[in-house]
Amino acid sequence: MQNRPTMIMLKRLFDIIASLTALILFTPIFLLISLLILLADGRPIFYNQERLGKDAVIFRFHKFRSMTNNPRRRLDEQVREDDPEVTGVGRVIRRLKIDELPQLWNVLKGDMSIVGPRPALPKYLETYSLRQRRRLAVRGGITCLAQINGSSHLSWDERIEYDLIYIDTQSLWMDLKIILKTILVVILGEERYVKHPNGN
Fold first, then answer.
1. Which CA distances in Å does 194 have to 9, 189, 197, 200?
2. Strands 46-52 and 140-143, how do they pair?
3. CB 188 within 8 A of CB 98
4. Rg (CA), the chain
5. Which among 96, 79, 77, 119 is positioned nearest to 36, based on CA atoms?
6. Strand partners, 58
7. Which of 5, 6, 61, 199 sits in a 20 to 30 Å window from 192, CA-based?
């Protein structure tokens, strides 16, 4: 078992190096996606939203915009794959998880980590039980244990259970495995890679 303060320090060091390197390497992708969004649907290019960070500190969460400029749906609703308000460009970048790349900036700033519970909307704080509030003991992540275990097919409570398992057993080795499995999910697609809880 890794010494926890040492692990936290090494995890933050990894986050800084990984996010900075990725931001530099993915600059051409950032420029291309920004241009495609601009040409297809105009501004804004990015979608920004308040989310809960470590210790319930609220921060600005960044994504490439994948929805129309004036969606009729509530902004906190779960987006379905066939949602008509997802743009053509948005459908592609959501499938490949490219819409999440701007969160590398959140990681570099220290709002988030590469791996950790997905940051929730502030309104959910009041719905947490005392046990569920433990998910706020660590930085939220771009990817997480729930995302490689059928995230879109899980209930909110099931996702939180995966978050708590991660918090209780986290290690740098676990983070590496989650990152590698996330890459497989992106390449193969969740439907093909992930065995869903209902067995389908």
1. 31, 8, 9, 10
2. unpaired
3. no
4. 17
5. 96
6. 52
7. 61
Q: Look up residue 193 and give its amino acid.
A: Y
Nearest by Cα to 96 from 34, 33, 50: 33
In the numeric block, which tokens belong to residue 101?
């790349």
d(CA 190, CA 147): 9
Residues 6+ apart with CB under 8 A from 25: none
C-alpha dihedral sign at 95, 101, 107, 111: negative
Give SS3 for 3.
coil
d(CA 183, CA 22): 14
Taking the domains of the chain in order of start, what are their residue ranges? 4-190
Q: Token pair 């978050």 is at which residue? A: 163
- Output the pLDDT for position 123: 94
For residue 74, the one-letter residue type is R
